[in-house]
Amino acid sequence: MSKGYSKFLDQNDLPPLPHFLETDNLSTELENNWKKQLEYTTRPSIVIAIAKSFGAPFLIAGIFKMLQDIIAFIQPQLLKQLILFVNDYSKDTTIPLTKGFMIVFAMFTCSVLQTAALHQYFCRVFDFGIKIRSSLTSMIYQKSIVLSQESKQKKSTGDIVNLMSVDTQRLQDLVQNLQIIWSGPFQVVICLVSLHNLIGSAMWIGVAILVITVPLNTVIFRYLRILQKQQMKNKDERTSIISEILNNIKSLKLYGWEEPYKAKLNYVRNEKELKNLKKMGTFQACGNFMFNCSPFLVSCSTFAVFVIFNTKPLTTEIVFTSLSLFNLLGFPLAVVPFVIGNIIESQVAIKRLTDFLVSDELERDTAHELPPAQKIGDEAIKVENADFLWSRDPYKVALTNINYTAKKGSLNCIIGKVGAGKSSLLQAILGDLHKTSGLIFRHGNVAYVPQVPWIMNGTIKENILFGCRFDPVFYEQTIKACALTQDLKMFPGGDQTQVGEKGISLSGGQKARLSLARAVYARADLYLIDDALSAVDEHVGKHIINNVLGPEGLLNSRCIVLATNNLNVLRFSSQITLMIDGKVTEENSYEKIMSKADKSSPLFNLLNEFGRKDSTPTRSNNNSQVNLTKTLDVDNSSISSENYDDDDVAGEVSSDLDEEIRRVATGPEPIRRASIESFREAIERKEDEENTKKTGFEETHEKGKVKNSIYLMYAKACGYKNVLILLVCIVIAMFLSVVANFWLKYWSEINTKLGYNPHAVLYLSIYFCLCLSSSIFTLFQTLVQWIFCSIEGSKYLHSIMVDSVLRAPMSFFETTPIGRILNRFSNDIYKIDENLARVFTMFFSNSIKVSFTILVIIFSTWQFVFLVVPLGLLYRFYQMYYLATSRELRRLDSVSRSPIFAHFQETLNGVATIRAYGQLDRFSFLNKYKMDKNMAAYHPSVSANRWLAVRLEFLGSIIILGASGLLISTLRTGRVTPGLVGLSVSYALQVTQSLNWIVRMTVDIESNIVSVERVVEYSQLESEAPEVIENHRPPEHWPFRGEIEFKNYSTRYRPELELVLVNHH
To answer: Residue 583 and residue 518: Cα distance in Å, rounded?
Structure first.
């Protein structure tokens, strides 16, 4: 906390994650108990596995919760005793004040003990939630990388990501309040007993009203959930339109379609999304109105029944003790139904998780792995009488009666038309298909080049090394052999250039060559290459054949199985296998096939067909040639490709490689892969390097406090008049509530003085009107907050951002990832729509409530003002001390959480490649490492909340002690009455929660106002030239003919780049 107060925190400032929260330990524990569930029960339960793994601390938390509940109900009894003491003292001043001070000290002690018990409970349940999320996330990851093809078809990548992001989070959130299920009824029982002892049977009418309001609130919130679902659909529709616009922005600008698409977007935004949001605001206002009405309806009805059916007076101790008990009773009755609802919703998450965790996995023993073949010509791969399925339900055959052999030192080509089963055979050899019969033997380790290259987020060098130790000599040979030398020269950072989703966009040919380089560098025994030559230009393809695949290539001593229809490489193959409809139809060498010229041979006919296609000159439609760096997008850099061609590349590297290939191709051992421990060190070193060497094109974010101009901008967007009306409503509602309590004090003191209940109807009517008026202004407050502030503000901010983005130049879209722009229109707009105005309102409400509380206590005893000043300063210090750290911890939590899902999605996209290279352990370790890194930020954030809550609640205890103690010490003045004590101490007992909420809402405001800052940033983008330039309008009947003429035209993609056209005519 002290470090966060003195500087901006970064990841290195965080304390190490406690050993008992490390993902590896947690996931191992849960996996072991889950395996027991699978072994010993027919209906495995993930809930039981979780309970056995982490349940003990959760049960201990329940003990602290019970202790806190009991202490909470002692406070009203102590309040009653304090009021009775003051009443007795007013009649007999000889009673020693020591008794009063003992009651005050008891109230202070109970308050401190309640704080201690509550936060011991919270510490344990939050740790329990962390354990659930960490362990389940790891289990989901582990399961996803071994799913069978059949299971993958049933679960999309998005579904699995939702399991990790949504369902685990839902379970984590649930356990934080799960013990309310027993704690709620326990509190209700204690409260009912206390109320019955206090006011007898009159309490049942109040209980009845509370019970009636519960289903009414449930109905309101049920409609809110329906509207929320509709709101999600509206958001999805709007996001879909935004995504469509951004993905096709160049076409929109060329056709001048910005305005029609903006109108389409605004219709969904204004007529659907915001109108639905108004309905949600109206129902929210009704719910708040019911919630505010319940307490005074309960008190009015209870007091009415009491005075009607009882002859004894409704005295001060009865009034304020009853109000305290009804306030305590309201919480469990309001919360329990929602916890039950959350449990029901969590059942869906539990079922989804269970169904996923019991999904079919890949068969571990599909292929028999044997030692590498020793001699050229030895058998390296063998498939005997094997049948393979894509899925068993529905039954879908992939390959039938496969007999196939490939030898060490041979190039084996598999050919066939689209859908014939070429890729399927490679997947079968890898072990990725379900084998129903037959045998597969693999001699040695495997390198795999998929048809669609998988490039992981990282540098080019990291993609090539792929977990292997760095050998500089062979690394350079690999670069040259795979025709990457010229590309690396053109890339801004050479082989340190970031590629993948977070880096530059590679062409299809560059991806294919990078994927091939990864395989070559692995120096595996067996190479399974799926149509890698189709993505590259013919000249580059010949270069790769000569230097990698052919008899003089780097892999000439390995066993290569290549799925291809490229005629050039077939000439060098040792064996050509023809696949038709999932069957091996014919096998032979190229020489024998062409020498026989058997026209009845399907293999000969297919080769002839390839030859005719190959001899037909065609213009290449493939933009993935080696020189296609013109499509590169380096966040802020574009690379022109007009400076070299494929012949240059091939010629440049071929001569240099000939001698090197002959020297290394026949015998180097496979490069040993790095250990997990050394990999951990490499990750930490790499992160340190990245922190010190930023590319300059990262997404910008401010540190520290948000500027005041952003707050003013949001107030302007909401409308200054609307904000003023909102504040006036809050003040009036709070003022009327305080007046109502003063009226109750006045009435109860008259009853106490006279010994009966005079003019009960009048007093009750005035009390009822005051409370009802307060609730009505609360209703107005919520309506103004939603309809006039929140909706108008978000409508304005969304509108100016849309205008700015659509008018931004193409350079902005070329240098900004679409996901980054989408995040402004989705996540940031959501926070402005539904969160920001609400947290502002809660902040103002609690601040005004605390202000009135302090005023009431000062009114009761003016000496309290001398305690308010130091307490206020201490409170402000705690607030600033906490906010400085909490702000950065939240930022670190957010920053470290995104890479978890990015890594997970990346793994799912490349799982076949990762599995083929034997890299599952490394990627699993990476997942756990990223989880621990996130938890290292999240756990201190939760702990900081506890740190703050304990101190603020202790300040609340000091306020109770100070207010009560000062009242007792001034009894001799005769100004202090029982009603004044009841009123003052009742407010003091409630102030702790409000103090906590003020700081929490301050944090939430800072978290959400950042969204306004981000939206404002995108509303001030550099703009294109105006759509219409009045003094450069074309003639009325333009155009006269279709023609474009250039005169000494020069241009560049962006101001900082070289010219791409120079004096063009």
So the answer is: 30
The DSSP code sequence of 750-814 is HHHHHSS-TTHHHHHHHHHHHHHHHHHHHHHHHHIIIIIIIHHHHHHHHHHHHHHHHTS-HHHHH
Range of the domain at 457: 408-428+446-581+622-669
Residue-wise pLDDT tens digits, 872-908: 888 888 888 888 888 788 878 877 887 888 788 888 8
Count of CB atoms situated within 10 Å of the CB of 924: 19
Q: Angle 646-664/472-481 helices, nearest 10 degrees?
A: 140
Tokens coding 66? 């019970």
Please tell me which residue, 989 or 30, carries the higher pLDDT value. 30
Whether residue 787 lies inside any domain: the answer is no
Give CA torsion, residues 16, 21, 22, 24, to 10 deg: 180
| Cis previous bond, 809, omega within 30 | no
Band of residue 501 on the pLDDT scale cut at 50, 70, 90: low
Cα separation, 942 vs 487, in Å, equals 47
Per the CB < 8 A criterion, the answer to whether 178 and 121 are in contact is no
CB atoms within 10 A of CB 310: 15
What sign has the CA pseudo-torsion 1006, 1009, 1011, 1014?
negative
**Among 364, 352, 351, 354, which Cα is nearest to 146's?**
364
Question: Phi/psi zone of residue 329: left (φ > 0), alpha (ψ -120 to 50 degrees), beta?
Answer: alpha
Return the SS3 of 693: coil
Under DSSP, is residue 585 helix (H, G, I), strand (E, B) or coil? Answer: strand
Whether the CB-CB separation of 459 and 932 falls below 8 Å is answered with no
DSSP string, 513-535: HHHHHHHHHHT-SEEEEESGGGG
Give DSSP secondary structure letters for 416-451: -STTSSHHHHHHHHHT-SEEEEEEEEEES-EEEE-S
How far apart (Å, rounded) are the C-alpha atoms in residues 404 and 383?
5
What CA–CA distance (Å, rounded) separates 95 from 89? 6
Asked if residue 955 lies in contact with residue 874, where contact means CB atoms within 8 angstroms, the answer is yes
pLDDT, mean of residues 623-650: 34
Q: What is the pTM of this model?
A: 0.78
What is the predicted pLDDT for the residue at 1057?
A: 65
Judge whether 745 and 316 are in contact, CB under 8 Å: yes
Please give the helix or strand (H or E) that residue 256 lies within, else none. none
Does 20 reside within a domain? Answer: no
Q: Quick one: tokens of 863?
A: 């000496």
What per-residue confidence (pLDDT) applies to 69? 93
* C-alpha atoms less than 13 angstroms from C-alpha of 899 in its C-beta half-sphere: 18
Helix axes 46-91, 97-144, angle to 10 degrees: 170
User: CA geometry: angle at 907 spanning 901 and 909, to 5°?
Assistant: 105
- Per the prediction, the chain carries an average pLDDT of 83
Cβ proximity of 636 and 815 under 8 Å: yes
Task: Count the domains in the chain.
Answer: 1
How many CA atoms within 13 Å lie on the side-chain side of 362?
23
Is the distance from CB of 522 to CB of 670 less than 8 angstroms?
yes
644-668 tens-digit pLDDT? 344 444 444 444 444 444 344 444 4
30 within a domain of the structure (yes/no) = no
767 assigned to some structural domain: no
CATH number at residue 665: 3.40.50.300
**Residues 785, 786, 790, 796, CA torsion sign:** negative
In whole angstroms, give the CA distance from residue 48 to residue 39.
14
SS3 content of the chain, % helix, strand, coil (to 5): 70, 10, 20
- Give pLDDT tens digits for 960-969: 999 899 989 8
Q: What is the DSSP letter of 373?
A: P
